[in-house]
């Protein structure tokens, strides 16, 4: 299977790529004879409408149109989470299956990050009922600590053995290692054991990443053990956090008697078209360079890319190594679930919280719910103290039931919200809103609603354009002044009002440059603030979105009170008042992106 148009996009750019920029390379790949593509699911379902302003169903349909009716197009789904990051009810997963089939999918690869057989059976039935090829996964990972109980060949073989006992149609099986941390011997023994269990005619597939430079070696071991199919990519989106390049694998197979059903000699032309389409995108070296440290922090390539970009945006990339060092702690304490979405994000955010706030001082919601059993049963028993801490902080009791039954009714919520806003309640629209719904999140900030109302966030990892330096316009102001500025981005024009207050005290020159105001003299507040104002800023040094403001002008607040929340790394973080006082004004309402130095609200004492 050829992966640059899903896993490659996710691993390198968090999926934040315009469909028009990859379609020529898709067309070139079909012309080169490729007949099996990964094209959707994972972050390539969420990213188009979360960050690119594009409908993911439209993206899928456009790829199907380019490849024609006879090519296999495959998606990736996450068991009880489907293509979301939270648990869904069965009706949402059934709707997901019908829509994926409608928009071009022939094969659905389904994994459960807990390797929970009950979850795999329940969610796999929705794939079968939708009429797609059902490929079930066992999720592999190299443990960052020693254990002979889990993530061994015997553990993985036992998962498949139990699945084969259940009343569910299985069309193929995949050994899926999202982090590329499984060693070759384990790949060989696992493949040999699963191959011996599978009925004739059921293919065994293998998926890995080349993050630790083990990709080709693990594929060779899997093939020796009986694997029938593997996933490969092409430069500039291969190796590193992605899959090995077709040419590398072709070379490794020389003289073995095995061959690929892809013509390696056509890769140069595909690479050239792909590189041209992505010429404006900024490839972060963290996502394109192998990193052997990943064996100690089993993080999937598809998550490293997005997290690196989000940490860079938030101005905290310097804490990357500290987060990695905390990874083994959260893996062992959580119960050693597989580091693949959403489990990888849960590990990452808890490690991040441990670094930012102190170990277990703030339990990330997804990690806490996973420890408590709301995503299924972890392979190992979680740390009892962490269970108690998660239960106390989240206000939830441990759960041993069916995760599908505990999920909120996202479909009904989405339909009601669309009707309230006068938006079309098509199946696609309902699912877009439902898939972006997070309990407690303001529906004005729901990415599905934003897309349908024409106000999507556009966050593309493009190269910075060098602009000729020009001297700022300098003028002295003596009263509040408002000017308009027009911003054109990706064909959309937006008009902003910029208001500049005069500095208090002796007047200096004020420079209005690029939408920011600065003063060469005077005090720190405006005349309206009476000189006693205190701005409240985001706790991050980079760009984040304000997702909630809990106070309004005129409210009394106390020092340390949570007054707002910002989103960074797909999680909400508290913003606390630095002093006692009264809220003078809210400077950045929910939905506003703020950078360091831009106040969210202002307090007067």
Q: Which secondary structure elements does this structure contain, and how are they paired or packed?
A:
Elements: H1 4-13, H2 23-31, E1 36-41, H3 43-52, H4 56-67, E2 72-77, H5 90-102, E3 107-110, H6 117-129, E4 133-140, H7 153-165, E5 172-177, H8 184-197, E6 204-207, H9 215-225, E7 229-230, H10 246-252, H11 267-277, H12 285-288, H13 301-314, H14 320-334, H15 343-357, H16 365-372, H17 384-394, H18 403-406, H19 410-420, H20 427-436, H21 447-452, E8 473-475, E9 481-489, E10 492-500, E11 510-513, E12 516-519, E13 533-536, E14 544-549, E15 556-557, E16 562-568, E17 571-576, E18 581-586, E19 593-594, E20 601-604
Parallel strand pairs: 1-2, 2-3, 3-4, 4-5, 5-6, 6-7
Antiparallel strand pairs: 8-11, 9-10, 11-12, 13-20, 14-16, 14-19, 15-18, 16-17, 18-20
Helix pairs in contact: 1-13, 2-4, 2-11, 5-6, 5-20, 7-8, 8-9, 14-15, 15-16, 16-17, 19-20
What can you see in these coordinates?
By secondary structure, the chain is of the alpha/beta class. A seven-stranded parallel beta sheet has the order 1-2-3-4-5-6-7. A four-stranded antiparallel beta sheet has the order 13-20-18-15, with no helix packed on it. β11 and β12 form a beta hairpin. The longest helix is centred in the middle third of the chain and has 15 residues, at 320-334. It is globular. It starts with a helix and ends with a strand. The relative contact order is 0.10. The model is unreliable at 473-478 and 505-528 (pLDDT under 50).
